[in-house]
């Protein structure tokens, strides 16, 4: 399933990617004074940086950092153009800045289904991280091509209450 989702994600064109970015911003544009975790995209992931750049005028933006195998992610301050270096798994991470507890987390993903179940790269990093966050707005960000029929669910999987793609903003559960 991961391979199929990644192949489908790679085939998505510029227009759909731009539309997804616009939808993400539309979902989050009312936020003020929040700490928002975005991410620095790898491979063909949907790119949230346009929204992050605009949202940082009125909010604090941070991005995930892997601090150990089996550990939750930590989130470090990010601003447009800040110093970054390659971290674990080839993801860029800020080289300095404060560590934050986010109020909002934009979650990258490999695949998703109509119930908000999420397939990641398989490290369990977001599952472990989201399990430890309460009162947090969790928004999955993806492209329609990444949608799958119902995914198998494991006890540690954390479903996404919201998913944004180029075709809309989907509330998938009642935890909204
Ligand atoms: N942009 C982004 N940042 C993120 C994640 C993510 O999924 N996306 N993570 C989510 O947990 C964490 C990093 N964990 C990761 C774990 C495994 C792989 C991985 O297996 N990558 C593939 C190739 C990726 C590609 O080029 O598309 C590999 O190394 O073979 C990537 C990230 C934190 N930061
Ligand atoms: N809260 C948790 N506590 C302990 N182990 C966990 C937790 N969440 C997930 N795991 C473990 O992490 C491993 C990978 O999980 P899974 O395959 O769901 O990752 P993923 O969601 O695809 O990846 P990621 O979240 O990194 O994008 C599994 O062995 C799972 O049991």
UniProtKB/TrEMBL annotation:
The keyword Calcium does not apply. Its EC number is 6.3.3.2. GO terms for molecular function: 5-formyltetrahydrofolate cyclo-ligase activity; ATP binding; metal ion binding. Its cofactor is Mg(2+). Keywords: ATP-binding, Ligase, Magnesium, Metal-binding, Nucleotide-binding. NCBIfam families: MTHFS_bact (TIGR02727). This is 5-formyltetrahydrofolate cyclo-ligase. It comes from Jannaschia pohangensis.
């Amino acid at each position: 399933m991961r391979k199929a989702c990644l192949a489908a994600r790679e085939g998505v064109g510029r227009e759909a990617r731009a539309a997804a970015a616009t939808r993400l911003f539309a979902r989050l544009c009312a936020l003020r004074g929040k700490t928002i975790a975005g991410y620095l995209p790898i491979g063909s992931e949907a790119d949230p940086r346009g929204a992050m750049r605009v949202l940082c005028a009125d909010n604090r933006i941070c991005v995930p950092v892997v601090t150990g195998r089996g550990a939750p992610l930590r989130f470090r301050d990010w601003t447009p153009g800040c110093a970054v270096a390659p971290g674990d798994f080839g993801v860029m991470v800020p080289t300095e800045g404060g560590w934050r507890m986010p109020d909002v987390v934009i979650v990258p993903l490999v695949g998703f289904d109509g119930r908000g179940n999420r397939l990641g790269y398989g490290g369990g990093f977001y599952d472990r991280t989201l399990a430890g966050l309460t009162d947090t707005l969790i928004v999955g960000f993806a492209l329609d091509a990444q949608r799958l029929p119902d995914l198998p669910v494991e006890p540690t999987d954390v479903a996404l209450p919201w998913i944004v793609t180029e075709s809309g903003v989907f509330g998938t559960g009642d935890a909204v």
